[in-house]
Amino acid sequence: MAVAVGDRAPDFSLPSGTGTTIHLQDYIGKKPVVLYFYPKSDTPGCTVQACSFRDAYTVFQELGAEVIGLSNDSVAAQDRFAKNHQLPFILLSDEGNQVRKLYGVPGPIFGMVPGRVTYIIDQEGIVRHIFDSMLNFSAHVDESLKILRQLQD
């Protein structure tokens, strides 16, 4: 069953591109989280999306939020992706797609490309917004910032 707006965000632990294990629960009670699932590191669309998050990262920080991206790429691939594009936020390796399945993010579309979905999780761990768009890469950033600003009001 897919996670919906108003649900408590399911907790998980995954390795980051740097090899550190990241627990979603470590952020709950401290700051909102922008959790974005993307198909594959270093592909054109995913690079545009990641660089859009990178370019707006200081705004996310000013809003008190953390950005976490994840795909089923290996830890080494996530590390290369982050270094190649100077990504300042966390990238996680969900190689078995366990977290993708836990959240109900669509699997391979047409048997080829996993879904691209962003979840805005408030400081208390509640999903406040879900944005799902395969092709409007930068809109994931715009939607996230809009919702984070609304949560501050």
TrEMBL record:
Domain of life: Bacteria
Keyword Oxidoreductase: yes
Top-rank EC class of the record's enzyme: oxidoreductase
Keywords assigned: Antioxidant, Disulfide bond, Oxidoreductase, Peroxidase, Redox-active center
CDD domains according to UniProt: PRX_BCP
Entries under InterPro entries matching the protein: AhpC/TSA (IPR000866), Peroxiredoxin_AhpC-typ (IPR024706), Peroxiredoxin_BCP/PrxQ (IPR050924), Thioredoxin-like_sf (IPR036249), Thioredoxin_domain (IPR013766)
Family to which this protein belongs: Belongs to the peroxiredoxin family. BCP/PrxQ subfamily.
Task performed by this protein: Thiol-specific peroxidase that catalyzes the reduction of hydrogen peroxide and organic hydroperoxides to water and alcohols, respectively. Plays a role in cell protection against oxidative stress by detoxifying peroxides and as sensor of hydrogen peroxide-mediated signaling events.
Assembly mode: Monomer.
Protein name as catalogued: thioredoxin-dependent peroxiredoxin
Record organism: Candidatus Synechococcus calcipolaris G9
